[in-house]
Amino acid sequence: MMILPELSTLLFSIVFLFLSLGKKKDSAVLVAKPLSIIILGISLVNILANGELFSGAYRIDLFSQVFKAIIAYGFCLVIFMIDRQDEIEGAYFPEYIMFLSFSALGLMMLVSSVELISIVIALEVSSYSLYVIIPLRKGQTNIQIEASVKYLFFGAISTGIMLFGMSYIYGIAGSTFLSDILKVLPGAMNQPIGVFALILTLTGFFFKLSLFPMHFWAPDIYEGASNTTTTFIATVPKIGAAALLIRITMLANASGAQLVNILIVLAAISMTLGNLVGLVQKDIKRLLAYSGIAHAGYLLMGVLALSKDGYAAAMYYITIYLFMNLACFYVMILLAKDGRNIVLNDLVGLSKRAPLLAFTLAVGAFSLAGIPPTGGFTGKLFLFMSAFREGHLAIVIIGAVNTAISIFYYLNLVRMSYSKEAESAEPIQLTFNEKALCYIFIFLVLYMGIVPFGLLDIFRLAV
Amino acid sequence: MIFADAIFIIIVLVTLAGALMTVLSGSIIYALMGLVTTMFGIAGLYVYLNAPFLAMMQILIYVGAISVLIAFAIMLIGPLYKRPKEWSYPLKLIAAAVVALFSFFMFAKVMLKAQWAVLSKPFAISTKDIGRLLFDRLTFPFELISLLIVVAIIGAVMLSLYSRGEK
Q: Is the ipTM of this complex over 0.90?
């Protein structure tokens, strides 16, 4: 049973489809937690599965299985984070979890698809679920509706551009299977059409990753969607997008010099724009959105090296990106009990009110800024090294400058929570689960910073 | 050959006229009619490209289903009958035209420069071949579409309940 992770996620969705028909909707999260752990367990057990299904359209190898395990891990953590369900209308809670799992299922199928039409449809399964859950936010004005419509339109446009690019690839190769395309496309890379086709195809994943030309949705959608929905959108779909970014740039093989030039420009603009605009943000979700744009630029540095090390570094970075973002978002979810958006001033005196939360936020922010010994530093180090080794010195310098710029606003989060005194310092009570989750995040971020090589070796084997 | 060329040119002109009508007309209903015309024109191009199945599907899906859906949406929304003024003020139109023309010429140049692979036999796929492909090599996307439709339907039902405020 090679596709057990997907099947178990599908079963999870079906369970919640039936729960949504029943009367007792509050118990949904109690069912979700053990089931999501089971999904994670199954995808970890299946990590060495190998094979092809559906006449070569669906490949199961270490690459896809590692990504599936990361997606399952992210999904599991998000399910545990939505313990407090005041943000979502209680009556729609089972549907909410169902769509989250449908989205995760789409991403799991995405990383295994090696055929263009399957890739598009799997990506759409994941996106459609997200379009639907963004409006489910309690007690706000119309910002969540606006966010949902924007996400839908931008998503539709980016899918259209991606399909247009894929039609060129089909025109060049005469096949939609990546294995056939791989034989023909490197020969077409010295023509403009090959570069065009690949860049347009990548656009759909740029959108998911919120990379420069397709980044403009991120701040509005992060702001409009509820905190838990944003947590999911900001982390898990980006893993799938990174996987496909790697898969599709692999098609260019070593003959993608022009493609690399375009990617360098995109990465540079994305980092600079994200970090500069991030400097002036007050709303923390908007701040994290711009930080996400900048991090997409960093991630692209690994991809554009077009080397095994580069791809492994990108995989490592997206994994640590998942954990450090989840840590920051979790602090926000716990701070905003009524589901409002947290602004910078809400963090004042956090170290007195809840030392553990302040520390989790500090670890997350240090990691996003790339300060040792956190995982963000190690991940960035690998990315910079892989780009440097392939001779892309300019982008390494731009990346280093950007890292320095970004330290300002990440450390501002820490400064707010540690050095300012609050007028009223009522402590925040945390339950055992919430404390445990905070410790898990701190552990993961620090572990990936200090002991990187075991995971990195697995990733290097996978690409 | 002259006759076939003439039909081709007519089809292209009809497609372009429909597209212009969609973009420029002041009333949304006329814009919809322009869209229908464009879709018919594209179906004609498919016939010309030796893809009759695709042409039939184009008419069935775009002209038959999606246009009717859009018409229903316009009907239900109501006062959007006239296109709001701010949608089509001149500066916006000029900017759109510049972007469209620029990308058109860029794509045209790239397309003309490309060396396309020469096929040994004419590229023609019959309906039978498409059916075979869907149940043979492309089974996975075919099955995956059913999942996509399930997600879309459940989502639409849930959102319509949600917008009416039902628990």
A: no
